[in-house]
Amino acid sequence: MSAIFDKSTPGKSAFPVPQYDIPDFDPVPERFLGGPPDLIDVDEADVVRHYTNLSHMNFSVDTQMYPLGSCTMKYNPKMNERLASLPGFADLHPLSGDACSQGALRLMHDLARYLAEITGMYEFSLAPAAGAHGELSSVMIIKKYFQEHGERRTTVLIPDSAHGTNPASVAMCGFEVKEVPSTPEGDVDIAALELMVDENVAAMMLTSPNTLGLFDRNIRRIADVLHGAGAFFYCDGANLNALMGITRMGEMGFDLMHVNLHKTFSTPHGGGGPGAGPIGVVEKLAKYLPVPRVILEGDTYRLDTGYPSSIGRVHSFYGNFLVCVRAYAYLRRLGAEGLRATSETAVLNANYLLAKLKGAFHLPVDRLCKHEFVLSDRGLPNGVTANDVAKRILDYGFHAPTVYFPLLVEGAIMVEPTETESRETLDAFADAMLAIRAEADKDPDLVKKAPHCAPVKRVDAVTAARRPVLKWDD
Amino acid sequence: MDYTGITDSDRAEMLAAIGVKSLEDIFSDIPNPLRLRCPLDLPGPLSDIEVEKLIGGMANANRIMHSFLGGGAYRHHVPAAVDHLSQRGEFLTAYTPYQPEVSQGTLTAIFEFQTMICRLTGLDVANASLYDGATAMAEAVLMTLRGGEKKNVAVSGAVHPHYLAVLRTYLWANGIELREITPRGGITNAPSATHAIDSDTSALVAQSPNFFGCIEDMEALADIAREQKVPIIQVITEPLGLGLLKKPGDFGVDIACGEAQSFGNYTGFGGPMLGFLAAKGEYMRRMPGRLVGRTIDESGREAYVLTLQTREQHIRRERATSNICTNQGLCALRAVAYLSLLGNHIGGLAALNHRLTALLKHRLEEIGFDPVFEAPFFNETVLRIGGARGIAERLRREGWQLGLLLEDMHPGMTDCLLVCATEMNTPEEIDSLVHVLKGII
């Protein structure tokens, strides 16, 4: 597929600049002026056709099942898009002032309250723009707490099953990362943890359910061990979709957490964002939350920056507000019973698929899963790998599962069907996986050379990294 | 009322296939004391009609007025084609393009976005986007600190105050000192900049056009940085200016970063915005975030792929160049569609924005507003009038937002307003504003 630059023809135009007859009262001095721009000349039809044709080369939730583990690729209701594009939201300037923004502030205030109820946290901030941004803000809160309390804690514990963002966020706050091992059953190794926790440990970060899709049965004990040493327990909320209305992070003993609105609360992923990563904390950490915070005084909502202990600002304005509008719409549409049904069905669908696939693929930990499960490529014949399975499933019209994550399972194949897939779709996906398993025996090259039906064949990533070409040149 | 696709009979059969009796059983691994005994205390479920009415009412409770607000978020016309293309489900509901064979649409668009940002800034390499301008600036500064022993950063006090605040948050977490260079006459004071830099300084940071709308003498600041042997970072909140003004690359700027919301994205109460980051080639492996590269597939056809991923958190973990994962992909798609449509008319549009702001300034000066700074400006500028807060309040009641009161952000700038005109403001609208103001002042 050619780039838009190939279509540029001098003289074409898609953008009529208004021709107002006004003088220039303050010409920009010559020495600040640049040369002519170096963009392109195309017409509107060129642009619409180019990007529409590009879109045809994408897999998406709107076109097929997208069982990408850890990413919660559920269907995104179209109503939410309509609401986020209302002029009262889309055209609202962030510096309009509280008096002009009452509707937006109310929505933010209420969404934060609902998230607190769903998770059992005391208070939420919507400022972080993505999950990793929420993690970073939370680690800053932990750092600030210990600074205010005159303690120099140096270490944050992270299990070997964690998302890469966890250690990266910790490192951005100057903490040292120590890795906590997991047991063969997929839980945190409590005995190892007890040996690691001391007065240097500021916190432990854990995804719940964990990245194997398993609920850690010792979760309260982990919390107790950490709290006993004065350390905090952080929940990476990427997997909240399994637990809404069933249990809460507050009940599990977590002190702070982030939620990925673009996962659990069904805001679209946009090919890599924008998402939103609101953070929730227990009461004693509330004063450290980012500013500004939305408060309700009488019947008026206000942006408040008067929190001297706050870590400060983390975003140009107030976070990804239009993403919050979508999440709010989703939440109000479902209510408590709808959210619970969402989690129940997400877990039902995952366990159903697991039951269908576990005889054909190696299952590192055989127990009830939550919203996702992890298989591996161990035992696949003829050198067929997780990557080969991922590429071959594309030919069957499904997006690939997440592969090679979590790192503690070699050749991991991580499947998250989500609650929005029908039984027919789940069956078709299982049939495709089983067919690939059979192909691995009978016609391994078919699998190893896949995909055959995708817009392009396997892409040469090695050359891309060795001789990077990162922009179009004529 | 939920969005699940499972019928009652499906459920029964699926439970049987799993080998359990009830939905309760698939949660039996969650210890009893942790299980919720009663439903969540949330408002009840609503139909689509009710949700649309409720949230429509909230949208209507915001007041969208005749506005001359800028200050880091800019009101621009968004061509219908941008909305249309970004609502295509294939773009909207795709994940980060980890499987390049079925993500060529997203990957190609990001590659084009990187190219356009490089061309606009005159730099060699640009990433796929960051959250917003403020975090882009913080990430740019962290790039210059990584792997070194530097202890402070010299930053112009004429940078957007929110950006300074975010940088302060990020630097505090890293134990790095932020040295703010007090501006003079609305621009960065060169002797103070020289004075702020020492052997422990990782970078000199300035915004141009700056928060007050003034165009900085980036050439002079770049010379200072070169003499002191520190990289210079240029922050930009209104990248439309790049259609008219010299590019960062023209001054030898090392890293350009900031906000690209102006390119096809709405102000949206400040989010989602679109952070961008571009740099000289030597910084390529220190860049945070996604980078898309061109390569070939097995049949030799041109294809695109996420590349240099060993910089990133999912591979490098605590040694990654940043923790960023999800960024602002769809906003970058909107930007590249917008820039494709705007094309080389960007120069004309930038010039129009400048002329309208100059007209606004001229008309306001005629009725008693005073200019605060003499430095040249691009599309926003600071004006002073006695009783500015009261005037702004009365204007608001008449449906006008004249500008941003600066005294809340910069104590000492009493009665100062930052005003901004864009192509959304017609000359007639400026005449009407003046007419309304005459009745107030």
Structure description:
Among the domains of chain A are: 4-54, no CATH class; 79-333, Type I PLP-dependent aspartate aminotransferase-like (Major domain) (Aspartate Aminotransferase, domain 2, 3-Layer(aba) Sandwich), CATH 3.40.640. In chain A, a hairpin with an 8-residue loop joins strand 11 (402-403) and strand 12. A seven-stranded mixed β-sheet of chain A has the order 1-7-6-5-4-2-3, sandwiched between helices. A three-stranded antiparallel β-sheet of chain A has the order 10-12-11, covered by helices on one side. In chain A, strands 8-9 form a two-stranded antiparallel ribbon. Chain A has 474 residues and is of the alpha/beta class. Chain A is 35% helix and 11% strand. Chain A has 14 helices and twelve strands. Chain A has helices spanning 44-55, 78-84, 87-90, 102-119, 131-148, 165-171, 190-196, 219-228, 249-252, 321-357, 386-395, 423-442, 444-448, 461-466; strands at residues 123-125, 155-159, 176-180, 201-207, 232-237, 256-259, 279-281, 293-297, 300-304, 373-376, 402-403, 412-415. In chain A, helix 4 (102-119) runs parallel beside helix 10. Chain B is of the alpha/beta class. Chain B folds into three domains: 8-60, no CATH class; 66-76 and 345-440, Aspartate Aminotransferase, domain 1; 80-342, Aspartate Aminotransferase, domain 2 (3-Layer(aba) Sandwich). Chain B is 37% helix and 14% strand. Chain B contains 14 helices and 15 strands. In chain B, strands 2-8-7-6-5-3-4 form a seven-stranded mixed β-sheet, sandwiched between helices. In chain B, strands 11-12-15-14 form a four-stranded antiparallel β-sheet, with helices on one face. A two-stranded parallel ribbon of chain B has the order 1-13. Chain B is globular and about 80 Å long. Chain B starts with 7 loop residues before the first helix and ends with a helix. The interface between A and B is large, with 200 and 203 residues.
